[in-house]
Amino acid sequence: MTFVVTEQCIKCKYTDCVDVCPVDCFHEGPNFIVIDPEICIDCALCVPECPVDAIYEESDLPENMTDYIALNAELATKWPVIDETKEPLPDAEEWADMPDKRSALILP
Fold it and tell me: Per-residue pLDDT tens for 65-103?
């Protein structure tokens, strides 16, 4: 199993999770971060660090979020590694609790 970043991260991009990752498995896009399932060691250190509860163990994903498994894997091959905390997006607080944000995801 691996961990997966889901839509709650879209347009927020809090990076608290990045600092605790011992293997640098996070990759950064314009308004979302993902976990590379090939690098993730399933340590779960990132889960409690996410202020918007966007990270799930693959086996615990809500049914409507299972497509994020493939999305994380795909985008991790296209986006650069992020290995340090950055400021969240300027309007992150506005988007933090908003549902159904998939259409706002900026893809490569």
Answer: 999 999 999 999 999 999 999 999 999 999 999 999 999
Distances 87 to 16, 31, 68, 71, 93 between C-alpha atoms, Å:
9, 12, 24, 23, 12
Name the nearest CA neighbour of 70 among 30, 37, 101: 37
Q: At 39, phi and psi to the nearest 5? A: -105, -35
Domains of the chain: 3-84 (3.30.70.20)
Q: Is the pLDDT of residue 1 over 80?
A: no
Contact between 6 and 68 under an 8 Å Cβ cutoff? The reply is: yes
